[in-house]
Specification:
The complex is a heterodimer of chains A (209) and B (176).
Chain A (H helix, E strand, L loop, with lengths): L6 E5 L5 H8 L2 H6 L8 H12 L11 E7 L6 E9 L4 E8 L7 H18 L4 E7 L3 H9 L3 E12 L2 E11 H10 L1 H7 L1 H13 L4
Parallel strand pairs in A: 4-5
Antiparallel strand pairs in A: 1-2, 2-3, 3-4, 5-7, 6-7
Helix pairs in contact in A: 1-3, 4-5
Chain B lengths: L1 E2 L4 E4 L5 H5 L23 H10 L1 H6 E5 L5 E11 L4 E8 L8 H17 L4 E7 L3 H9 L3 E12 L2 E11 H4 L2
Parallel strand pairs in B: 5-6
Antiparallel strand pairs in B: 1-2, 2-3, 3-4, 4-5, 6-8, 7-8
Classes of the chains: A alpha+beta (209), B alpha+beta (176).
């Protein structure tokens, strides 16, 4: 049976502003990603506006922000590609599923896979990295399943709830991703960007799947 | 200024800009001179002079290393301090990279350790090395730094990919 999902990724837009701001207020966001809980709502809003602001078509952005959207829940998460270096063909990736009801490893894994396809196949990047706190086991396991290699263990590197924690640095090179895609060819075809686009086209035209 | 046996270490002045500019060499890239995206920055002498004269943060955290003859032999610093996690990034750039094996570099690293752990009360110092910076890596290891891993193929220059190693030193390990 082919594996399918009713989620997709798309460019984040100004209309997503309030949704994303709501997610950033979530204590989980501040624990698992970053953010100072003392920041004012105005400061958070300004940060999101700068993230979602459209970049002129002719410029090469330093960051790309994607929304993980779904038929059932609407927008459920944010994927950011940050520190994009067009010289080194690299970026750092972060995923946050803000809608707690929609959190699942499968959803997150599919979103990461599609984003990696976007990075390697569309943006022509050579390397995708991720920095993940050691206690965020679910996240780093997804990256390992995607073929990423744990390259760094930064000991006692961040503080949460008064305790220091390790931080992991992951890296995935293009040949490694291509090898993974070839190894799991059948499953990856079902969740690929191409499959996602075909699903959206069917939804739009009402054609049967 | 800190007068050592082999060096005099002092905060960097705008007049040091020409010597600092000499370290920006794409054929011999240095980890300490890459930006957040691991891209090389290529400032002019005037831009460096302005930066060294303007930024209070730079003036208090970036130092010139002179030898006993008063010649500039390198630069060192502590930057990107995380007050919350109490760690700082230590940088050491000798004008001649082979001098990383010499007593001047050793004194500069001892200065950074002391300043980081005793003066700024840091818990951890972090340093970065490109794979070509073997003399710097050896000097860091001699001063107790330990590898925390290598990021593969993060930087492209001089016709090839470079790996970037992260090394760290904790206050308790350093005995400071």
């Amino acid at each position: 049976m082919p594996f399918s999902t009713e989620t997709w990724i798309r460019r984040a837009d100004r209309e997503d502003l309030d949704t994303v701001i709501g997610w950033m207020d979530d204590p989980d966001f501040q624990r698992f990603l970053y953010g100072d809980p003392a920041r004012s709502p105005k400061q958070i809003r300004e940060q999101i506006v700068s993230m979602l602001g459209r970049t002129a078509g002719h410029t090469m952005p330093g960051g790309v922000y994607l929304i993980l959207d779904s038929k059932r829940h609407g927008p459920i998460g944010l994927i950011s590609l940050q520190n994009i270096s067009w010289r080194n063909r690299s970026c750092n990736i972060e995923l946050y599923i803000g809608n707690a009801a929609a959190r699942s490893r499968i959803t997150a894994a599919i979103a990461i896979y599609r984003t990696l396809e976007y990075c390697f196949d569309e943006l022509n990047l050579h390397r995708v990295g991720a920095i993940i706190y050691a206690f965020n086991t679910a996240s780093w396991r997804i990256f390992e399943k995607a073929g990423a290699v744990r390259e760094l263990t930064l000991r006692d590197h961040i503080v949460r709830d008064g305790q220091t924690h390790d931080m992991y640095g992951y890296g995935l090179l293009r040949p490694e991703f291509e090898a993974l895609r070839a190894r799991y060819q059948r499953q990856s075809e079902d969740v690929s960007l191409r499959a996602m686009i075909e699903y959206l086209a069917r939804e739009e035209t009402g054609a049967p799947s | 200024m800190i007068q050592g046996i082999y060096t005099c270490i002092r905060t960097t002045d705008p007049d040091d800009a020409p010597a600092l500019h000499g370290l920006y060499d794409l054929q011999r890239p240095r980890a300490a001179l890459l930006d957040m995206r691991r891209e090389p920055i290529m400032p002019t002498v005037d831009e460096l002079r302005e930066m060294l004269g303007r930024k209070e943060a730079v003036r208090g955290a970036f130092f010139t290393i002179e030898n006993r003859m008063g010649e500039i032999v390198g630069f060192c610093g502590l930057r990107s301090v995380s007050a919350e996690a109490r760690f700082a990034e230590a940088t050491l750039m000798m004008c001649k990279e082979s001098d990383c094996a010499g007593p001047e570099a050793s004194e500069a690293l001892a200065f950074l350790r002391s300043r980081g752990f005793n003066w700024l009360r840091m818990r951890k110092l972090v340093a970065h090395c490109l794979d070509r910076e073997t003399a710097l890596r050896d000097a860091l290891l001699r001063h107790g730094f330990q590898s925390e891993g290598v990021q593969r193929e993060v930087f492209y220059a001089a016709g090839r990919w470079h790996n970037l190693e992260v090394l760290s030193l904790f206050a308790e390990t350093a005995g400071e």
